[in-house]
């Protein structure tokens, strides 16, 4: 029998608790960030003991958390932002490794968002905002972090067609959190 002090290990940390509609945006971001950071840290510890792939484990965790937030009607942008920041904090990586991780997580979440028919532009904006928070946490160049994330979003969007690419580009045009985001032209698919 589980007591009040013992958490339900099988409960999904994002799906459980209050409805997203009853939480403030700051609360949703904080819960998402903390939950993902804890899950990533735990998964990395487990992968280290078993010799598993850490990057695959991290992206799986990010995708599960994001999926949980989408399932309960959470804000797509806040969820993406919280997942990215949580992954970087939980993984404890720095420098170029943090930028590579942000790139991979961004691609995964853009694909998940597009596949779910959710608002890809909001996800892309949230991911860039998350990259800016993570860059500040790690002392990285904000413009570089935003550019890497925006470029990854654009490339991942290419897989879903011109309309999705346009949605990402429009959402990232202009200033995000005081920074003019420079997005490179999405790369053209190469013929085999």
Global Rg: 16 Å
Helix count, DSSP H or I runs of 4 or more residues = 7
Overall domain count = 1
**Oligomer class:** single chain
Structural class: mainly alpha
Largest sheet: 2 strands, antiparallel
Give the N-terminus to C-terminus distance in angstroms. 59 Å
Provide the low-confidence segments as ranges: 1-16, 186-192
Biggest sheet strand order reads 1-2
On the 0-100 scale, what is the average pLDDT?
A: 82
Q: Outline, from the CA principal axes?
A: globular
Q: Could you spell the SSE succession in H and E letters?
A: HHHHHHHEE
Could you tell me the strand content as a percent range? under 5%
Beta-strand segment tally: 2
Helix content: 55-70%
Fold and architecture overview:
The chain has one domain (24-180). The protein is built from seven helices and two strands; from the N terminus they run H-H-H-H-H-H-H-E-E. Helix 2 (54-71) packs across helix 4 (95-116) and helix 3 packs antiparallel against helix 4 (95-116). A hairpin with a 2-residue loop joins strand 1 and strand 2. A two-stranded antiparallel sheet has the order 1-2. With 192 residues, it is mostly helical. The radius of gyration is 16 Å and the shape is globular. The chain starts with 24 loop residues before the first helix and ends in a 12-residue tail after the last strand.
Layout of strands and helices, then pairs:
Elements: H1 25-50, H2 54-71, H3 76-91, H4 95-116, H5 120-138, H6 142-158, H7 162-172, E1 175-176, E2 179-180
Antiparallel strand pairs: 1-2
Helix pairs in contact: 1-2, 1-3, 2-3, 2-4, 3-4, 3-5, 4-5, 4-6, 5-6, 5-7, 6-7
């Amino acid at each position: 029998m589980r007591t009040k002090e013992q958490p339900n290990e099988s409960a999904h940390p994002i799906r459980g608790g209050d409805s997203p509609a009853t939480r403030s945006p700051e609360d949703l971001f904080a819960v998402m960030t903390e939950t993902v950071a804890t899950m990533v840290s735990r998964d990395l510890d487990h992968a280290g003991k078993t010799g598993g792939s850490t990057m695959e484990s991290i992206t799986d965790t990010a995708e599960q958390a994001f999926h949980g937030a989408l399932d309960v009607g959470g804000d797509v942008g806040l969820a993406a932002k919280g997942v990215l920041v949580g992954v970087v904090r939980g993984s404890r990586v720095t420098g170029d490794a943090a930028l590579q991780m942000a790139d991979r997580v961004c691609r995964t979440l853009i694909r998940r968002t597009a596949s779910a028919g959710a608002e890809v532009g909001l996800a892309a904006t949230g991911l860039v905002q998350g990259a800016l928070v993570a860059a500040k946490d790690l002392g990285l160049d904000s413009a570089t972090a935003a550019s890497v994330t925006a470029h990854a979003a654009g490339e991942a969007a290419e897989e879903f067609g011109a309309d999705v690419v346009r949605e990402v580009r429009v959402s990232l045009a202009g200033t995000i959190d005081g920074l003019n985001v420079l997005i490179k032209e999405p790369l053209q698919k190469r013929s085999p």
